[in-house]
Amino acid sequence: MGEKFDISYVFTFFPKLAGTLQTTLLIVAGALVVGIIVGILVALPRLYSVPVLQRASQVYASFFRGTPILIQLFLFYYGLPEILKLLHLDVSRAPVLFFVILTYGLHTGAYVSETIRAAVTSVDRGQVEAAYAVGMSGIQAFTRIVWPQALAIAVPVLANVILGLLKDTSLAFTLGVMEMTGKAQSLATLTNHFVESYISLALIYLVISFALERLLLAFERKLLRHEVRVIDAYPVFRRDKSRGLRQLFARHARFREEVQKS
After folding, report:
1. DSSP structure string for 50-119
2. How far apart, in whole angstroms, are the C-alpha atoms of residue 127 and residue 124?
3. pLDDT grade, residue 253 (50/70/90)?
4. What is the CA radius of gyration of the chain?
5. CA–CA gap between residue 18 and residue 179 (Å, rounded)
6. With left for phi above 0 and alpha for psi between -120 and 50, is residue 176 left, alpha or beta?
7. Among 213, 173, 219, 37, which residue's Cα sits nearest to residue 110?
8. What angle do CA 184, 72, 81 make, to 5 degrees?
9. What is the pLDDT of residue 236?
10. Distance of alpha carbon 113 from alpha carbon 13, whole angstroms
């Protein structure tokens, strides 16, 4: 049993937990860089239907999306050095943080690849054909027409991936990495104030998640600023939408009256 709840410990633990925040952010940043690079490379074979690589990218995405991140951490930390020994590569002395960032990066890459693939395929094919018609090359059509729209579509999903990555870093302490969750567990064990320790930890995660969410929302609005202007320039669309809702409610009211009469 722990000690009696004392709110002062919540504030006492804040600076101690914040001291390990840089490790958590390092894992998030490193995994995000690896995940974006891997995600783009994995998405390309499926976008261009490359026969063998397309199947390999599907297997990759299925494995990392279909298995728990905790199991992936154990597999890469304990299994990867043994596999590389067969190739005469010794990574057993590599820091634990290397395996943690690599695992989280590959895990994130699976979700990023699916997001990129879905966002690119959602762009109207007619716009690409129009770009070709005005003389653009394939690269120009992708970078000027497809990619800006695909990025705007992908940002909300990528925001969820980043927030999920931040929270998943709490499992890194299972390999001995002293990030915020590991520090919270140590403080709780030393002081027997478990509730206060985890309340402090939860509040720090909440503040960081809120800040990231607002930042990504601002980025999303910046990407979609032209679409908002188009809607404002043509308010008739909003009138049509409200008119459609009124017609729907009217039909629903008539249906209820007919049911009551019958």
Report:
1. -HHHHHHHHHHHHHHHHS-HHHHHHIIIIIHHHHHHTTT---TTS-HHHHHHHHHHHHHHHHHHHHHHHH
2. 6
3. low
4. 25
5. 10
6. left
7. 37
8. 105
9. 43
10. 38
Q: Please list the alpha-helical segments (H only) found in 175-224.
A: 180-191, 194-223
Q: How far is CA 191 from CA 2, 171, 197, 205, in A?
A: 8, 22, 9, 21
| Per-residue model confidence as pLDDT tens digits over 6-16 | 889 999 999 99
Contact 105, 34 (CB under 8 A): yes
Answer whether 0.90 is exceeded by the pTM: no
Q: What is the pLDDT of residues 135-173, one digit of tens each?
A: 888 888 888 888 888 888 888 889 899 999 999 998 998
* Tokens of residue 167, six digits: 């929270």
CA distances from 235 to 223, 229, 232, 240 (A): 21, 10, 6, 9
Encoding tokens for residue 94? 């590599």
Paired tokens of 221? 């609005």
| 232, 245, 248, 254 from 241: Cα distances, Å | 14, 6, 11, 20
